[in-house]
Write a structure and sequence with these properties.
The chain contains four helices and no strands. It is 79% helix and 0% strand. The longest helix is centred in the last third of the chain and has 48 residues. It has one domain.
Length: 125
């Protein structure tokens, strides 16, 4: 399914994305958006229930994942950055593979159309 060329390209894209995320988080201050997510995740890790103990305007999955990271590794900022870098790298590779898929389907469909046309053309003779 994946050739050597695809594997190398996938690893390169993954490494580039994770590298950018790690580099940007190394020298940029914590933003308000991150503090909101981490504050909510900390409350969940402490045992509070979203929607019951505090209002939550978003779906809780991202907060539950961050709460699990807090429970497993403690409240260390690098673990969140590492998680985001890994998820970002996987997202980049999946988007790249998704962008290639329609091209392959078109190629496969064109081959099917031409082979059907060829069979019907030669069957008339």
């Amino acid at each position: 399914m994946w050739g050597l060329r695809d594997c190398v390209a996938g690893v390169d894209l993954f490494a580039a994305t994770t590298g950018v995320v790690l580099r940007q988080n190394a020298h940029i201050a914590v933003l308000f958006d991150l503090s909101y997510i981490l504050n909510t995740a900390t409350r969940i890790a402490q045992g509070q229930m979203p929607y019951r103990d505090f209002p939550l305007a978003h779906a809780p999955l991202t907060f539950l994942i961050k709460a699990a990271i807090i429970r497993l590794t403690g409240r260390i900022f690098f673990h969140y950055v590492l998680y985001v870098a890994l998820v970002g790298g996987m997202g980049t590779v999946l988007a790249w593979r998704g962008a290639l898929e329609p091209r392959r389907r078109v190629h496969w469909s064109a081959r099917m159309v031409f082979s059907v046309a060829e069979v019907s053309f030669f069957s008339r003779r």
